[in-house]
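Exercise 7. Given the encoded structure of a 130-residue chain, write a plausible sequence.
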């Protein structure tokens, strides 16, 4: 059980239209608590050591090396626990935009794509419900 663990400390370093960059600082024994990501993301460990990862289907230790990044996809519920006897830090970069195409488009184009998508989705759902 996780009731007695301290929470890891997130500090948002940067947020813009494209990314959210968060520093996660874990005291020994601290955990992120259970969460899931709305965006795909890349973690850049700032410490070498072991983190214990829990998902709804598995538990395992990840051996992480300072400066060696890894990528994960959104939507998997998980908890991360620092089982080292020292502080553990990583920087997390969440990627807000979906495809390269969107990087070259302006705000209004992006917005009109979203509106078109939502309109289609609503029409589809209304049809399905009738
Ligand atoms: Ni996470």
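Solution.
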């Amino acid at each position: 059980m996780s009731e007695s663990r301290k929470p890891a400390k997130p500090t948002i370093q940067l947020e813009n239209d494209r990314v959210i960059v968060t520093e996660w600082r874990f005291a020994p024994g601290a955990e992120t608590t259970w969460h899931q990501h709305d965006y795909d993301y890349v973690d850049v460990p700032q410490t070498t050591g072991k983190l214990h990862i829990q998902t709804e289907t598995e538990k395992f230790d990840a051996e992480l090396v300072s400066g060696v990044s890894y990528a994960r996809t959104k939507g998997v519920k998980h908890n991360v626990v620092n089982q080292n006897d020292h502080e553990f830090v990583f920087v997390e970069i969440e990627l807000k935009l979906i495809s390269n195409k969107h990087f070259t488009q302006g705000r209004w184009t992006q917005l009109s794509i979203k509106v078109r998508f939502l309109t289609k989705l609503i029409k589809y759902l209304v049809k399905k419900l009738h």
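Remark. The chain has a mean pLDDT of 90. Students should compare their own answers with the one above.
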